[in-house]
Amino acid sequence: MQRLFIIQTSIVRTLAAFAAALAIAFFSYSAFDAEEASPLRAFAATNPPTQLAQDAHFVGSAACGTCHTSETQAWKGSHHAHAMLEANADNVQGDFHERQVTFAGVTTTFSQRDGKYSVNTDGPDGQLQDYEVKFTFGFTPLQQYLVELPGGRLQSLPIAWNTRPRDEDGQRWFHLYPGQELRAGDPLHWTGLQQNWNFMCAECHVTNFARNYDADLKTYTSTFSELNVTCESCHGPGSQHLAWAEKKQGWEDLANKGLDITFNERKDVTWSLDQASGNSLRNKPRDSAHEIETCAHCHARRGPIASKVQIGKPLGDAYHVSLLDEDLYFSDGQIKEEVYEYGSFLQSRMNHAGVTCSDCHDPHTSKLRAEGNGVCLQCHAQEKYEATAHTHHAPQSAGTQCAACHMPERTYMVVDNRRDHSLRIPRPDLSVALDTPNACNICHKDKSAQWAADEVKAWFPHANQGFQHYAELFHEGTLGAPGAREKLIAFANDLDQPGIARASALARLDRISSRAMLDQLRARLGDADPLVRRATVEAFASVPETARQDLISMLDDPVLDVRLEAVRQLAGMPRQALDATAQQKLDRGIEEYIASQKSNSDRPEAHHNLALLYLSLHRIEEAETEFRAALDLDPAFVPAVVTLADLYRGTRRDADGEKVLRAFLQREPDAAAVRHALGLLLVRNGRKTEGLDEFKKAAEAAPDNARFAYVYAVALSDSGKRQEAMQVLQNALARHPYNRESLYAMATFLRDAGDRDGAMSYAKRLTALEPDDPGVADFLRSLAR
Asked: What does each C-alpha distance from 694 to 675, 679, 683, 691, 769 come to in angstroms?
């Protein structure tokens, strides 16, 4: 399945005014060289080395199968074994018998000749061309197809085959982005960077993948040892294990039987049923997460941060895992966008109790260990949980299935139904309050959320509300409601809560507004969970530089992802503020950060990150080069054009900034952040009327952006259009009732208009939000006088 991985792009605090404008989805497109394509190379496993001291290498699944026959047979029928295959008669499921399908005005023809499969469709130049299908991609419920393009690129076609039976609406071609006109140059067009197999998909569909991107030539010479997810994808390179099995010289010295990782979380573990609760208890705590993190390499929403993945190392040494961000998850933690299973499972009571992936799934077949409710009844008493008193549904009906209520499905890629692995209690009451989905109304579509909430309340009048109870808190944190900061910090310090949720609470902090909050934040720098440590370091962005000295120790954190965040926060600190040891640590961290970004030099986000780093280090020419490199990879990459224009502002080159902004808007006229940046530039240069027009366009293009509305209102007021300005602010406050800037502006406008009572009402709302801010208190006192 295609996986959309987003590399985190962090914004240096000197560019904070643009942070909201840059919070966009990073889609991109790259033009192709006209030269002959570099063939994608699969290298064969070599013979095991004679010296055991040599680094372990990959030997291939056939070598594993000589001893592990039952596991190999089980694997052969799994989705992992069909993740990616050569396009031949045994593997292609789609209808290639001169089948034509038309989507968004483009007619695509699928053909088969001489044992080869081809597709005639619109290419990088928008013209119809023939392309050979090299590989199948995926197995069920859909299969995609990969085409090779110049530069060693494999690209994923957006027209996929529905592999389900015909009576389940299957056996047909369908488009993964229905209703969208994806022309050449569009971020999601099949020839674009966002459909590129080498970065987006490969490492989770082949074994021992190396991207091998040449940033100068903009080409790939990607390699892998085997198609599909084979034994060594999870167990690591097997040469030393093979030497151990064959008892070669020195085999006695090999730890863990010569493997990089041992999955022993379930070894000697028993679960005992507690009759009182109907639930089982583990006989000993789970003291590692090797198995879960190994699965998370592919079953998590994450972005790569290292050139090489090493099985057995912490997940954060290879990936930046997404938190429960509002654009990815609903406020209660339910899945929204395509986030896979890891982030959900970390929230679950099952994870908290010590359950691992293979407690429920056979690791080789990938199937559940039992059919239907049987997998849950391994640990939960049947007489309690399959009873009508618990299900409140007729026996054998869909409503009696554990997963239907506790793991509701959400559909991705048009036909792929995936279950939410947070295993939560249905909360239709949250649907009423916060518009989150709930399992009840997924089935009872003709009923309201209030009906479902009333039913559940009647069934379980005294029941607790589940393991996850942070929906209201996250909602308030996202809105910036009164008292939210204190609640978020307190939640992050509650060690009984899921680590990913505590980290997500910290990520919702807009700033640290008191010394007491700072002290509470410091306590989380030593948290056992690396996600919490990373979020804690990131939260230091709003504290004074003197307080950031606390982050020096985080440059030695055992997890790469945490260290990289520490570098982001410390890179711009004055050197005189650091002692010699701290300077050495920071210099080492900066080099590590640069290496991390260069490992993703085929992505515009990585170049943008490097540019921001260089800006903070006052390496202006290098920053400009990286901004240009980002735009060269993706001319539609908004963050790079906005921050490049701001670099020109800082170097008194506004004329150059205006050129790049206007050139961008000729291609992307609805880019609100670019309109806003252009408006700032024009006003800065005394062209207020033109700037006002750009602010208006930005606010209209992004009505949910409170910052754009605020700046537009201020510009209107400065132009003498006070009533229009207040109307803009009122509309913005209807969407964002706790926006500090808009509240202050409304209070000021009303004060200047002589409406003291009206001004006081907005000032009091602002005071409730910022009770410790002396400036707000002074403003309120001035109004009272």
From this structure: 5, 5, 10, 5, 31
526: which residues sit within 8 A by CB, 6+ positions away? 533
Joined tokens for residue 368: 């559940």
> What is the distance between the alpha carbons of residues 733 and 270, in angstroms, rounded to a whole number?
55
Read off the pLDDT of residues 719-733 as tens digits, 9 standing for 90 and up: 999 999 999 999 999
CB atoms within 10 A of CB 305: 23
pTM for the model stands at: 0.92
Q: Residue 148: in which H helix or E strand, if any?
A: strand 142-149
Say how far apart CA 111 and CA 573 lie, in whole Å. 60
Give the count of domains, the chain: 1
Matching residue, tokens 């050197």? 575
Asked whether residue 91 is domain-assigned, the answer is yes
Q: Which segments of the chain have a pLDDT < 50?
A: 1-51, 53
Range of the domain at 171: 41-231
In one-letter notation, the amino acid at residue 99 is R
| Domain-located, residue 752 | no
Q: Phi, psi at residue 699, to the nearest 5°?
A: -65, -35
C-alpha span between 348 and 549 (Å, rounded): 35
316: closest CA among 533, 499, 559?
559
The Cα–Cα gap between 239 and 231 comes to 12
The answer to whether residue 222 is domain-embedded is yes
C-alpha span between 585 and 557 (Å, rounded): 11
Interacting residues of 607 by C-beta distance below 8 A, sequence separation 6+: 597, 601, 626, 627, 629, 630, 633, 640
Question: Which residue bears the tokens 């982005």?
Answer: 177
> In 10 A of CB 120, how many CB atoms?
15
210 domain-assigned? yes
How far out from the chain centre does Cα 283 lie? 35
C-alpha angle 117-122-125 in degrees, rounded to nearest 5: 125
Q: What gap in Å lies between CA 150 and CA 220, rounded to an integer?
A: 9
Q: What is the pLDDT of residue 478?
A: 96
Q: Say which DSSP state 669 is in.
A: T
String of DSSP letters for 412-464: ETTTEEEE-TT-----HHHHHHH----HHHHH-TTS-HHHHHHHHHHH-TT--
Contacts within 8 Å (CB) and 24+ apart, 353-357: 353/281, 353/282, 354/269, 354/282, 354/285, 354/286, 355/379, 356/265, 356/266, 356/286, 356/291, 356/292, 357/291, 357/292, 357/295
The pLDDT, as a whole number, for residue 54 is 64
CA distance 717 to 749: 8
CB 99 within 8 A of CB 110: yes
Which of 198, 421, 195 minimizes the C-alpha distance to 296?
421
Q: Phi and psi at residue 93, in whole multiples of 5°? A: -100, -20
**Joined tokens for residue 735:** 């969407």
pLDDT tens figures, 210-245: 999 999 999 999 999 999 999 999 999 999 999 999
**What gap in Å lies between CA 344 and CA 498, rounded to an integer?**
10
Residue 398's Cα: distance from chain center in Å?
32
Check: CB of residue 165 under 8 Å from CB of residue 171: yes
**CA nearest neighbour of 538 among 21, 13, 17:** 13
